[in-house]
Amino acid sequence: MQMKLLLGMVVMIVILPSSTVTVRSNISLENCPQTCGDVSVPFPFGFGRPECAKNSSFLLECNQSSSLLYGNIPINNISLEDGTITGIIYAVSYNCHRQKGRSRSVRNFKQQHIRLDRWIISPTYNKVIGLGCNNMAIVADRDGALGSACVSFCNDSADIRIDGSCSGLGCCRTSIPKHVDQVNISAFTISLNNRSVPDVSPCNYAFVVANSFNISKINPLGQWETVPLQLPVVFEWVIGDHQGCQDYCGLNAECSHSDAGGGFRCLCKPGFIGNPYLPLGCQDIDECKELNKYPCLGTCRNTIGSYTCENKTNKTTWPIILGISLGFTVVCLVIGAWWLSKMLKKRRKMKLRSQFFKQNGGLLLQQQLSSTKGNVENTKIFSTKELERATDNFNMNRILGQGGSGTVYKGMLVDGRIIAVKKSKVLDKEKVKDFINEVVILTQINHRNIVKLLGCCLETEVPLLVYEFISNGTLFQYIHDENEDFPLSWERRLTIASEVAFALSYLHSEATIPIYHRDVKSSNILLDEKYKAKVSDLIWGIKINCY
Predict the structure, then answer these.
(1) In a domain, 308, yes or no
(2) Number of structural domains the chain divides into
(3) Could you give the count of Cα atoms lying within 13 Å of 458 in the half-sphere of its Cβ?
(4) For the residues 65-79, what does the mean pLDDT come to?
(5) Angle at the Cα of 253 (from 250 to 259), degrees rounded to 5?
(6) Is 348 within a domain?
(7) How far is CA 167 from CA 20, 146, 306, in A?
(8) What is the pLDDT of residues 308-324, one digit of tens each?
(9) How many CB atoms lie within 10 A of CB 144?
(10) Residue 506 DSSP one-character state
């Protein structure tokens, strides 16, 4: 055995210039024919000379008409991969119930046709078919034990159509039990409720046939002679036994146990291809020439029984890939840090706004608004975000005026109302309660000569006051700067003075709680679109008499 392997390796080294073996197309021994007609004959089978086959059990005959025969049995296919051989043999049992004496059962099916001890009727590649009316097809082993059966029926006037399914109408099918090397098949006519057998099928049949055979080619409705007496049947074959099985297999091949007759077959090892029964056996597959089966994105190198794939792309571009990965990681970290910083900043701002809101008496104002609901329905607590949006983040271009107490900005709310937002400079923390009371009281004042206080924002360090917008500026501007569009005559001056006096009189005597303006001056008197006077800046210059 060792000598045989050594000789095979020496021959391979001498013939082949490199480690890559080119797969031979030969399937038979050298100088032996490979085909008979259109049937390939791989070793261990052979014909022509006895030495072309493994032994006499595998020796076939190719006659003058190029038909492959085993004895008198035509052979139309041999498969090394499946371990099968297909023969055309006489395998029909029939029973003609209207023709006395016309009956036959096929007994010891294998022994009548195949003399090889290691061949079995394949249960995988064959089926048993029953054709006819009220017919039972029976499969038994060599001892007569029932293996399987099927029944087919007919209607009195049935138009029987045979197809591959053989579902029971004139045709049925069953399987061959596994591990059975010899079978008996029989066709019986059975009685159903004392009904006679329909005339549509004078004979019943049972036979073994290959799965690939088209049953619809058979016409069971005529005499029994119309059914082919010879049909294709597939046998599974093995070679030798496991004692010394490697003597039957060639180089780079291994033994594989088979259920067929308890023997074995030879198979190529992984990475090899060819006829495992030839002396040189199986030859190395060059996977690099079949990249559709063996993918490789880099450099493919064939090895005995396998191959390697070196990915050049990884070697040449890994710095680029690494750089891209690091760059992407850095960008993600920067974006993550920016987002985290933004979120922390936003959170700190929200926390600071909440702190200012409480510090500036926001909770007190909410409490007063809820306890005096209905009386202060016009009082509104504005948010910082709302006023920043209204004044374009307190843009310098929106400044209406500046004074000792703060800066006034022009703004527009979401609903379209024009407002004036006063950003004060300082608030005495000890007077927060008084401030909140003044806001609540002043938002209730609604007089044509007093600037209306709409509400406040307490989310900043110093509260923001929101007033109605007065379009024509202060009286101070008209007194000190001449204006041709509106000359300040004595008559107009007297009218403005009376309007201011009327407003102060209302605050002193007609308001619900007396209010005293302690900072009446021309810069705190505004003129509207009709140049009527409006007293402003009450919140910082008033005294509210609560007693």
Answers:
(1) no
(2) 4
(3) 22
(4) 88
(5) 105
(6) no
(7) 54, 21, 49
(8) 888 655 555 667 778 88
(9) 8
(10) I
Looking at the domain assignment, is residue 165 inside a domain? yes
Q: Residues 6 or more apart from 266 whose CB is under 8 A from it?
A: 239, 245, 248, 249, 250, 253, 254, 255, 256, 276, 277
Structure tokens at 351: 């926390």
- Residues contributing to the annotated binding site for ATP: 423
Q: Which 8-state DSSP code applies to residue 164?
A: T
Range of the domain at 252: 1-20+242-290
- 483 and 499 fall within a common domain: yes
Active-site residue identified among 117, 199, 259, 519: 519
516: left (phi over 0), alpha (psi -120 to 50) or beta: beta
Do 457 and 492 belong to one domain?
A: yes
6 with 131, same domain?
no
Residue at 345 is within a domain: no
Residues 186 and 254 in one domain: no
Q: Quick one: tokens of 68?
A: 């492959």
| Separation between Cα atoms, residue 368 and residue 441, nearest integer Å | 11
Same domain, 264 and 222: no
Which pairing describes strands 525-527 and 464-468: parallel, antiparallel, or unpaired?
A: unpaired
Q: Are 469 and 523 in contact (CB under 8 A)?
A: no
Assign 298 a pLDDT band (cuts: 50, 70, 90).
Answer: confident
Cα 102 to Cα 90: distance, rounded to the nearest angstrom: 17
> Span 193-207, mean pLDDT?
69
> Residue ranges for the binding site?
423
Q: What is the mean pLDDT of residues 502-506?
A: 91
- Among 243, 234, 280, residue whose Cα is nearest residue 78: 234
Q: What is the pTM for the complete model shown?
A: 0.51
Question: What is the token pair recorded at 52?
Answer: 């072309």
537 classed as catalytic:
no
The set of residues, in sequence order, having a beta carbon less than 8 Å from that of 261 and lying 6+ positions away, is 117, 118, 119, 120, 181, 237, 238
Same domain membership, residue 474 and residue 520: yes
Do both 104 and 129 map to the same domain? yes
